[in-house]
Amino acid sequence: MQRNNLLSQYGSLAAVVMALGLGLNGCDSAERGASAPPAVVADGRPAVVATSTLIADWAAQVGGEQIDLTGILQPGADPHVYEPVPADTIAFEQADLILYNGYNLEPNLIRLLNAAGVSARQVAVGEVVPPLDLADGNGTVPDPHVWGDVSNAVPMVEAIRDELIELAPDHEALFTANAEAYITELTQLHEWIETQTATIPAQQRQLVTTHDAFQYYATAYGLNVVGTLIGLSTEEQPSARTVQQLVASIQGLGVPAIFAETTINPQLIRTVAEEAGVRLASQELYSDSIGAPGSEGDSYLNMMVANTRAIVENLGGMVSEPNF
Fold first, then answer.
1. Of 35, 39, 254, 317, which is least packed with CB atoms within 10 Å of its CB?
2. pLDDT of res. 137
């Protein structure tokens, strides 16, 4: 492969990093800042607000039509950098229950919750899972991307079920049945992913993504995270040295393909692929958000299937169709 001189000229690379880093978060403010206005609850249903698209999906699976659900972030939005809008404050103020991830996944929304004097019960759903602690330059911090291991979704769904039962005890039987059915699907998904990733040749189980969102996935399903452009939060910006080191790691391990993510500008990871002489997978991974309605990742179950299919096929494994 013909390669350019980007990495051999440190100054040029630094300029590229600065230019692209400004757009690394990808979506413009209209795309990642839109919030649905809170619905007026006139039928007695409890008002439930979920910050992330994943938690909103789980709450919908358990609560069904018996809750009035508002999702703050829209599909494709990045919770790390999301800037609250006035409608979010109104939603929080009108809520009976607020479900958020925690572990600082959605820092600006957490700050808003703490500052707004919200009276609703607030539950950090992700914090029911003991976290992986990762280095961030100032010691260690909990990794918020707990859903990457599908078995972790089970206690989170159970926590949502319990909160909804406390909020609307008349619907306990329905919430319990919905949760049980969904947990059965989660268990089948977890087992399916284990089977698929096991087909990847051992020396090719090397994962490279834009930001460090797949440690739980890798730990649960037998992969090794070689490196990422940026750390746990997409607020970070990659340095030229980080890019150089990542390219060297990719080349040294013979990584067959690397991955962009749906919520982050792919340009810099594309540059890394070019410099390393490695293929950038055509399918972007869903990291911090489910996909838009009608996309292959438009629910938690679907995004995990889509991610697994992309990872396994691009790293040399074989994928069978899920039967759940």
1. 254
2. 65
Q: Which amino acid is at 122?
A: Q
Q: Write the DSSP assignment of 144-194 as a string of letters.
A: --GGGSHHHHHHHHHHHHHHHHHH-GGGHHHHHHHHHHHHHHHHHHHHHHH
Q: Among candidates 150, 206, 154, 159, which has minimal Cα distance to 183? A: 154
For residue range 179-212, what is the model confidence (pLDDT) as tens digits?
A: 999 999 999 999 999 999 999 999 999 999 998 9
15 contact partners, CB below 8 Å, separation of at least 6: none
pLDDT one-digit tens code per residue, 263-275? 888 888 999 999 9
Q: Is residue 2 packed enough to be buried (19+ CB in 10 Å), middle (13-18) or exposed (0-12)?
A: exposed
Q: What is the pTM (predicted TM-score) of this model?
A: 0.86
Q: 82-120 pLDDT, tens per residue?
A: 999 999 999 999 999 999 999 999 999 999 998 867 889
CA 314 to CA 263: how far, in whole Å? 20
Residues 6+ apart with CB under 8 A from 90: 37, 38
Residues 6+ apart with CB under 8 A from 113: 92, 98, 100, 122
